[in-house]
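For this section, I looked closely at a protein sequence along with its fold in token form, which I now present.
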Amino acid sequence: MNRWVDIVRPVNGVMGIVATLVSAVIGAGLHFSAFYVSVASAAAIVFMVISAGNIINDVVDVEIDRLNHPDRSLVKFPEMIPKAKMLFVVLFIVPLILSILFISIMALLLVIVAEILLITYELYTKKLGITGNITISILVGLIFIFGGIAVNSVVRMFLLFGMASLANLAREITKDVQDMEGDVDRKTFPKRYGKQISSIFAAVFTVAAVIISFIPYYLGIFSIYYLLIVLVSDVFFIMSVYILFGDPERGQKISKYAMILGLAAFFIGGLA
């Protein structure tokens, strides 16, 4: 069982569920429970698509992972690969059915777009450096748009989309800095331009996300409670910028904590 947990990486899926619920709260406030069927379906869809993405990542990268991540299940137990492929197909098909049955045509279209982006990322764009980083960061941002669709309120989600995409783009570049030695078949941004320039770009994207985080408060979308929490999140983001130049691994971990705090800020902002 632990082998499959390693492949699916449910923690990532749970974070996607949280992001979906947060966007539903922001879109509908305390009335989001009126959309419980569509919101629950959206959360399940996000979890499955993220899990499918993790699976296909391990299948495609099994040879690379022998160097970068030798403890991953498909490296240690290659006999699992055929079943992993089958699970991937199931986790891609079921979200299409759920989206059309319980949410809307718009939701179905967004799921299709997300799945196409995931496939193209794994098979093509992740080898192109920053193009792949942008692709995966857009996918992260689209989770908030999807949550907004579930409660028929999309406009507010574009600020979350921007902030989440920029913050994740910084983390993606930082992770590529960590994996420079193992990325033998990828022309990643750090391999093209070096660790220092890549760290500068990651820092710029992080600062841009911090700046965007103030906009909902100054536009009157969220209350002072949002601002207080997002300030703590921003402190962690700035800390990650400072640290990533010397210790990319620690810097990206701190930025992950900052993103979690940012989610909490948006959740409180949606309720207040």
The domain at 155-272 is CATH 1.20.120 (Four Helix Bundle (Hemerythrin (Met), subunit A)). DSSP finds twelve helices and no strands in the chain. The chain has a mean pLDDT of 88. The chain has two domains: 1-152, 155-272.
